[in-house]
Each structure stands twice: as C-alpha cells, then as structure tokens.
Amino acid sequence: MAKINSNYLLLPNSYLFAEIARKVNAYMQANPKADIIKMGIGDVTMPLTSAVTCAMEKAAKEMGNKETFRGYGPEQGYDFLIDAVIKGEYKSRNIDISHDEIFISDGSKCDVANIQEIFDINSTIAIADPVYPVYLDSNVMAGRSGALNNNGYFEKIIYMPSTKENNFKPSFPSRHADLIYICSPNNPTGAALTKDELKAWVDYALENNSIILYDSAYSAYIQEENVCGSIYEISEACKCAIEFKSFSKTAGFTGIRCAFTVVPKELYAFDDKGNKVELNRLWNRRQTTKFNGVSYVTQRAAEAVYSIEGMKETKEVISYYMDNAKIILDGLKQAGFEAYGGVNAPYIWWKIPNNIKSFDFLDILLNKYQIVGTPGSGFGPSGEGYFRLTAFGNKEKTKEAMQRIIKGGF
Amino acid sequence: MAKINSNYLLLPNSYLFAEIARKVNAYMQANPKADIIKMGIGDVTMPLTSAVTCAMEKAAKEMGNKETFRGYGPEQGYDFLIDAVIKGEYKSRNIDISHDEIFISDGSKCDVANIQEIFDINSTIAIADPVYPVYLDSNVMAGRSGALNNNGYFEKIIYMPSTKENNFKPSFPSRHADLIYICSPNNPTGAALTKDELKAWVDYALENNSIILYDSAYSAYIQEENVCGSIYEISEACKCAIEFKSFSKTAGFTGIRCAFTVVPKELYAFDDKGNKVELNRLWNRRQTTKFNGVSYVTQRAAEAVYSIEGMKETKEVISYYMDNAKIILDGLKQAGFEAYGGVNAPYIWWKIPNNIKSFDFLDILLNKYQIVGTPGSGFGPSGEGYFRLTAFGNKEKTKEAMQRIIKGGF
Fold this sequence. Notes:
The structure is a homodimer of 410-residue chains.
Chain A: H1 16-30, E1 37-38, H2 50-63, H3 79-90, E2 102-105, H4 108-114, E3 125-129, H5 134-142, E4 158-161, E5 179-183, H6 195-208, E6 211-215, E7 241-246, H7 247-251, E8 259-262, E9 268-270, E10 276-278, H8 279-290, H9 296-305, H10 308-334, E11 339-341, E12 347-351, H11 358-369, E13 371-372, E14 374-375, E15 386-390, H12 395-408
Parallel strand pairs in A: 1-13, 3-4, 3-5, 5-6, 6-7
Antiparallel strand pairs in A: 2-8, 7-8, 9-10, 11-12, 12-15, 14-15
Helix pairs in contact in A: 1-11, 2-9, 3-9, 4-5, 10-12
C-alpha cells in the first residue's frame, strides 16, 4: 500500500499567493467594472530589454541551424554565462569566485527550495521572520519542522523575528542553528543588512559552525553604499555562506527563468562519521543527478544582461521601479501611515493601523480602494500587523493608488 | 555543527556520463588527430525544426513588448501548451486526460528525480534493471536504498532484471513494491512493452496496490502497432500510474528543456493515519512550492511541436534517427554480433562477445575503432555484458562507424 510523504500535510492548505488570487478573483467576479490596481505579487511588469530579446532571437536561430544547434548543455551552466556572472557580479565587487563555484539554474525559488536536500534531515533551521515562504515550506516538506502550533509557529523551526524594534533586521537565533536562512534586501520588509550587520552575521556563523543560506535576489535594487551586493564582500563569508542570486527581479526574467547559486569550495559540513565534506561537491552531485541545465536560449539572454547595453537598460528599468517605491513610501507617509523598506528593495512594508489583522486589511483595501497587496502574516508570524506593497507596477497606476489612499484616508 | 545528507555518500563517485566523458577526453588528448564517432550519450544532433524556432523568435519578441510581456506563468504550465498536449498526445489516442492532470516542467529528468519526494521515506522501490540511472540515484539520495553491496546492488532496492531470457522486459518485482519504475521504450535496451505486457503491469499494480512511475520519454520512436504510446491506453491505468513524457527526444528539446508529467486525479496513496490522499494534489503542492514554471519562450516552442507543420517536421527528424537505428542494428548483425532494440527506440543494445566487461569494452571500442558508446553496466547490474549505441548521430558517421566494425571484425 503506497504511502505519501505525510510531512506535506503539515503545510497550511494553500499557498499565500494562490489564496490572494482566489480572493481577488472573487471580488472581480462580484465587481466586474472595478479598476483594480495590483500591488501584491512580486512580479515585474516591464518588458525584457532590447539587448536581452535580441540575444534570445539570435539564440533561437542558432538552435534551428545544424552547425550551431546545441543539445544538452552542462548542468552547471554554459561557460559564457558563468564568465559573465563572475565579471558582472563578483570581479566588479573585487570578489574572487571561481568558475566551478557557480551553478546556473532556472530560478532561485528552485535553488532555495532544493538546497536543504544536501543537509542532514535532523539539521536545525533558523529562518528570518517574516520572509519569503519557500525556505520554511521546503523544510516542512522534508520533515524538519515538527508540527504547526496554534500560534502559527512550527515547533522545531527557530524563528528570527524582524520587527520595528530591530529595524526589521533578524536577531541572531535563540539557540544553535545548523542552517540560517537570510534574505537581504528582504522580501517582504525591504530591509537590507548594512556591511557591518552582515559582517556580524558572518562572524556569528563562523563562531557557531552555522551555514548561512543567503538569498540576495534583490541585490540589484540596493541604493545605499553601506549595503553589500554580495555576502562575499565580507571576507571569510566563503567559509560559511551559500549565496543565491536571480535574473528574475534584476532583469525581468520571471517569465523566462534564470538564476545562479554560489557554493564556495571552502565550504564544508560533516558526515555521519565526522569527516568534512565539500558542499560544492554535494550540490554538484544534486544538480547533475536531478537537473539538466537551463535553456541555451535563456542563458544567452542572461549573458546579455551583462553586456554594456544590457547593463544600461537594466539600470533604467530598476530606476523606474525604484521611483515607484519612492512614490509609495512618500504617498503612505503623506496619508499618515508608517511605512518602511523601499530604499534598497522594491518592497514597501506598511504598518497597518488600529491592530487590524493583515488578512482583514487585504479585504479592506480591496473593497475601499480596489488595491491588492500582500498580507504580512503570509510571510511569517512576525509579519502580522503589516502589509507588503510592491513597486513593480505601472508608474501611473502606482500614483493613482497612492492618490486613492491619500484622498480616502482611513 | 552542520551535517550533510550522508545518503549522498552512498552513491558511487561519479555519474556515468561524466566518467565516460573523462575517458574520451583523455583519449582525445593522447590522440588529437583521431576521428572519434560519438554514439554514447543520448543527445540529439538535428537542429530544432522551423516551426519551433519561429515560435521561439516570435515569443522572444513578445517578451520585449510591454503589451505582450509575460512575467511569472502558472507553475503547472500555460493553458495553450496543456491544451496542445491533451490534443496531440491524449485525444489523438482516445485517452481522456483533464487539464489539471498535466504538469509542464523543464525536463523529465527533474520530474522522475523529484516524484519520489511526495512518497513516504520508507516506501519500497522496484526499478527495472538496466535502466536510466536517475530513478535509482534519486532514491539513494533520499535515503531509501540502504547500502551498496559488493555485487552492485543496493540492499533495499528491488531490482527487476531485464535480460535476454525475458526479451529485456522487466519481470514483476520479487516482493511487494510501493513504487515501480518502468521505462518503455526502455533506455538503454530499446525494448518496448506491448499492449498486452503493459496491461499485465497495470493489472499487477492494481492487485498489489503499487504505483507505476512510467517513463515514456521515447514514445515518439514507437513504430510497432502493438506497442502503446501512453500507459493510459490501458483502461484503469489512471488508477495506478503516473506518466512522464518529454520534448527532449520527441522534438530535439534537450537544449531548451521542456517535458510534462501526468498525475491522474483518481490516483491515491495513504497518509500515516490510513486516509486516502490525492497524489495530484501533492504533486501540485510540490511544484507550486519548489518550482516556478517553464520559460514562456520554451512553452511556445513546445506548443509548435503539435502544429501541423511541427508534427510533419518532427516525424521527419524521428525517421532520420530511426534510419540510423536500422543501420546500426543491421551493421552489428552483419559483423556477426548479437544486437537488440532499435525498432521502437533510438537505442541499440549490443551483446558484448567473449565475456568482456562493458567498461573494458568502452576502451576497446575507443582504441580499436575510435567509437564511443555507453557501457551497459552503467545502467544497472543486469546491463553488464552489454553496450548501448544510440541512433542520434549523423547518418554518414553512423554508416562509417558500422563500416569500421564490419571491416575490423573483433
């Protein structure tokens, strides 16, 4: 009698964004003429830049020609893209990352979800709270979480609350964690660790034999000089951190899927007998066995992001979104609200007034202003009382949304 | 102190194809002028067809236009592609598969490797022997295998030998298996189950409460009428089987990555408390949590495979490869060897004479004929004594390889 992985049943029934979509669809069906402004899901809206689409068209043509066709590529990614990543992301920051430390993938969602597989099933897990739900969910599904308590916490997970009191920067784990998930700039709060703060995390990890799983998917949005674009700007981080970066938000690749993960060769964990094992070797084994590389066409598109034209165009798109972030931040403040983030990230973290629950606030915003956002509680218990708006929308719509809020009051 | 998933260390050190590549590279460095004919790795060589590349170019252009740009797509795949799959793969075979039973992915390798995640960690696993190594390796990594014995068998895995004696069709498991992996047409033997044989498997699974994980990646190569293109041609199979299909070998997508998996809604397994749980719901949860969909550009390419022009072009490419298969099969027989497969699959299963070990035969072929193939033992213990040649090469090169063998004798 075949049995399921019962850990799956520990997860609450529906994934955050699906539940929001359900509510919005119900509202739209009931109010077919409503002009809804979507500031919820973290998806980009600007098209791919010209450098990127030209590269894709060229690659598509190559694939139709016998002389230039390519079948299976390296599971770890093509040299041309890895070289571009090293030059564009690391050499430019004076960081020395070698070729075989980089693994190209079809998205950071997959990588941050799959990375736990290479670690022991009894590893202790610390997760920033609130944060992108995939770190938690993938560990629940693997069986590392224990049960979900009534208060919204899984019993074996170490939560690192990021609240107004600590400027939304996660506090160190309350007890030893083998694996520490950090997202900076953070989704959903928009808070970004400064260089000093990040150094404190690296020191902590080295001292406590923890491994930091560092999700840096939003690093292209960093505006302040004292915020690192890579954890490896901190020397010694290559001894304690795996870094995840993505083209999704950097260059609008949410629909064509490309990301990369850096697993330094100096990074070790221990086997059952206490022997050191290179994590780079394990991740390589995982990827070569269970993954077959990213589309050649997509990899050429990603390479083009680092061309001179591509970098210029990408910068313009990010400026567009960050202008939106400022519009939202200023608008909410003008309307008398507290709001955070939006300086080094495309996310604005809105403090909900009057102790209204964040899922109730979703309904209020939808009904009163026809604006969709994301309830903070969907990102963890410490997200309760907050609401995430994103800067990925159209500028005129973003302005209009703020006008509705400013005029409507609360 | 972070610990690794020690199950990874149970795997033999290097993945089959990587080890072959290493040997070939060493030979090439030592013999830089050798004209090596590669008949080893199962990769296609013909370019993508015109219908497919046109669709990709068009989609790339759409992604560069604000009005037609698409960000995140549904994790399960776009409707247009799912509709095309239902029409092209199932309605055409009088099979009724519904929209939400199909999950588009970036490759069958990922899907067959990931599917085990939704099942209990103590599930018993039966695997055809020899077969594509990913079924086994993914279960070893998950911790279901036990240790590797000296004779090449993992202690907890139920092997289903497919030998000359049973026409390379796997025998039923020797004891109860919760999950049964079958690949038909088979990689590497090229053997394909007839409709009667497949019905016997479905009956067996229903009677024994087993779930069949049916890898049908090579179904486009089937030439004989009594061989099924889908397991769902057997009524009741939707109560016991998950089917994996791919565009990789069907339409040369090895470099652009697209496949799909069918998880029928009628398919159940049991939770810890003995309740029935829909596997479709679990796989949907797995995919929505840990995967973010396939590139829009690739999905448009896959849709084009089912256009009238696309189907015509695809058929021509497959004929080209199957002509090669005949050349190899006839050539080996003319040279006095025993050889199998090659009728419903692009793989020829070559019986090695004189009890030579298959990894030694790799060296012999390389040195004597400058031909690369794949040692049968790499696909499981019952593959020892055999060698896989593939029909994916250039026709002239394939002919020349056979001439070398016919002339050279053994």
